[in-house]
Each structure stands twice: as C-alpha cells, then as structure tokens.
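Bit of a strange request maybe. I'm writing a small parser for structure token strings and I need a real example to test against, not something I typed by hand. Could someone generate the tokens for this chain?
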Amino acid sequence: MKREDVASFVKIRKKQCDHLVCYQTCGTYSVQIKPPFTEQTALAKVKAAEDAWNSRDPERVALAYTEDSEWRNRAEFFKGRKAIKEFLTRKWQKELDYKLMKELWCYQGNRISVRFEYEYRDANNPKQWTLGIFRGRIDEKKGYEC
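Reply from user aminoacidic:
Good idea to test on real output. This should exercise your parser:
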C-alpha cells in the first residue's frame, strides 16, 4: 500500500469499526487505530503517528500515549503524559525545522515496530539526522501506545 493510499484510508474512515475509531475534536477528526493490526491498520497507525510528530504539538503527540507511558530518550527516563509534553516542548525548542519520517517494519497482534529517521538543526549547527527503531505495545482497548 502506498503512503498516499494510507492517508486516504485514514481520511475516509469516519465511523467505528473493529480496529479504527474516529472521533471529532475541534472540528477535525482524530483517529484512534486499535489492535489487532492488519497491514492496512498498521500502516495507518504509522502515518497518523508521523503526522502527529510532524505537527510539533506536544499535546497532540502526548495524547497518543497511555497516562502512565514510560519513555527513554538517550540517558533521560520519564513517565506519564505530563513528562512527555515537557520533554517534547524542550526538544522542539532546541531542534529547529524538525521533520520526521516513519516506516512500518513489522507488526503482530498489539505490537508494532517502526524504523524512523528525523532531521533538524539547532541554533548553531547545520542539519543533523537521527535514525532509530521504535518497538511498542498498543493498548488494545483504547489504542494508545504504552
């Protein structure tokens, strides 16, 4: 499935089904994609996450994670949505022109693995790139990342 097909899939789904729940907030539709994943819903989950991160809106990104989500970023460890928002606010104040690309690696049941790369610059340096792998478990009832 092509990336533009995933975007169309997310946009046209405006009703509840087994794996995709859409709800209206502030006049736009937010998408909650729940496991177990199919190829189509796993790709849609990755695209929705990529779009949220590229918005650089800490509130929007944090809402995709459980209230008690545990994060590690290099040597920093923290827990919960409030800490996630604080971390992302600091991150995007330093990392200017942030742009993320996510690519589905594999999925099974309520687990998903994503390869990611992002670029940014800081106030004193040219563009920098970071590459990595995200492996996550998705809450089956609410669709949030744990």
